[in-house]
Design goal:
Blueprint (H helix, E strand, L loop, with lengths): L1 H17 L19 E2 L20 E8 L2 E7 L6 E2 L5
Antiparallel strand pairs: 1-4, 2-3
Length: 89
């Protein structure tokens, strides 16, 4: 009889722990979604007497990879890199 009582107690405990909790709603903790607007950095020569030849006025900023962990900042006459205020690119 003692064995049957032990099995019944273990069985009841198993059913109680396997039952889902309905009072607890699991809400995922995701970071908030946000939208950012991209922008480009454009050279604006304010003194035309100090401009380069050819003129760089209106050229866009771009980073060029020159080696392992190394980049150089350059101005391009075509479309440059898009930057984002939140640090992504």
């Amino acid at each position: 009889m003692s064995m049957l009582k032990t099995l019944f107690t273990i069985g009841a405990a198993t059913v109680a722990t396997a039952a889902p909790l309905t009072c607890r709603d699991v809400v995922p903790n995701y970071p908030p979604n946000s939208l950012s607007t991209g922008f480009r950095l454009v050279a604006n020569v304010t003194d035309p007497t100090t401009d380069l030849t050819p003129s760089v006025n209106g050229w866009e900023f771009q980073g060029i990879h020159t080696g392992a962990g190394e980049n150089d900042a350059v101005l391009l006459s075509g479309p440059g890199r898009i930057f984002y205020h939140n640090g992504q690119s």
